[in-house]
Write a structure and sequence with these properties.
eight-stranded antiparallel β-barrel
Length: about 180
């Protein structure tokens, strides 16, 4: 009987330490505001923005801060000014208090300089976080629409509303 207990104890330990990685389909809807920052990593004189938004997600309530820099790159198909991603990151705080980090890899921003209406699409990857998201990886993308309420050569402020989708992949040792 003691051999059976040893086998069972070994099986339990082995099962716990070799659990498979977790994968979660992530969705979010959010709204809030954005304002220019002084961040200008490529020194082109066109600063990035800081968006502060909140909403709901597949992980419950969510609040997000996004710091992204874009650079002019021509015109969009409809004739609006086009900007593309220089660099960008998001911090997503979910209902549990844990953080999900995102690094953007590509993006396009189209803005009508007369009306102030804009659209934005960013794609990137989860890049860690806190708690059971410390090793989070996986693709994520967002689509945003909004309006600049004020803008001139020194800065801007406006609204932002959007949604995102992605896949959060975590290692087994990050599971709750």
């Amino acid at each position: 009987m003691s051999a059976w207990r040893l086998f069972l104890a070994s099986w339990v330990v082995l099962s716990v330490t070799t659990a498979e990685a977790g994968e979660l389909q992530f969705r979010e809807r959010f709204s809030g505001s954005l304002v220019n920052t002084t961040i200008d990593t490529n020194r082109d004189g066109f600063p990035g923005y800081l968006a502060t938004v909140a909403g709901t997600s597949s992980l419950g309530a969510i609040s997000i801060q996004d710091a992204t820099e874009l650079a002019p790159s021509g015109t969009c198909p409809n004739g609006d000014l086009r900007l593309t991603l220089v660099a960008g990151h998001s911090v997503k705080r979910v209902a549990s208090g844990e953080l999900l980090l995102v690094q953007w890899a590509s993006g396009a921003f189209c803005v009508n300089t007369i009306s102030g209406l804009y659209t934005l699409h960013l794609a990137g990857n989860f890049s860690g976080g806190t708690g059971h998201f410390s090793s989070a990886i996986g693709p994520v993308e967002i689509t945003v629409a909004g309006k600049f309420l004020t803008f001139d050569t020194t800065g801007f402020f406006g609204s932002a509303a959007g949604e995102g989708v992605g896949t959060i992949i975590t290692r087994s040792d990050d599971s709750p």
